[in-house]
Amino acid sequence: MQGVMTNDNGRIRVEFSMPWYMRLTSLPFLAGGLLFLAVCWQILRQELFGRGYWSEDWVGFAMCLVFALVIGLPGLVLATLRYFVEMDRILQQVTVIRQFGPVKFSSLRKLTDFKFLSITDDTSTDKDGDVTSVFYGVALCGGRGVKPISLASFDRREAATGFARDIGTALKLPAKDYVGTEPDESA
To answer: In what order do the strands lie in the sheet with 114-125?
Structure first.
């Protein structure tokens, strides 16, 4: 996921948007949910304007409605997923927001808990040990016991370094490059 940074009077916002082809994974879920909703509408139309018997059809209606929700809601979440981080230098706080359509989950943390920006690599290999893909992540990190906040992921190291430098300049935090090092499991 690429991160887009905006800086507005001491408030920095990093927003992630999934590429359009990643949102295509939501289409089968949305189509399945809409199919079950169409069946629910047919049952209701038959009950209200036709010769349906509610005592026989309510179970099918309830099952189709449950299937529409169970299959359609994950598709709606995948289609409308947004993740952004707002950092306010004046109020000294960081807000992480995950939004799925109209539903918004946010968590507030202190900016003073974070001491640096880290650049790490995530390397995927195949069965033979050959490198298949490398992604460079930029995260806002603190000392031991402080859970890092992921800010962006890039496919080129130069882009990750430039992004970390821009955020670090705005927040007055150093950027540390940990590419090629082993992760510290005790942190």
So the answer is: 149-154, 131-142, 114-125, 175-177
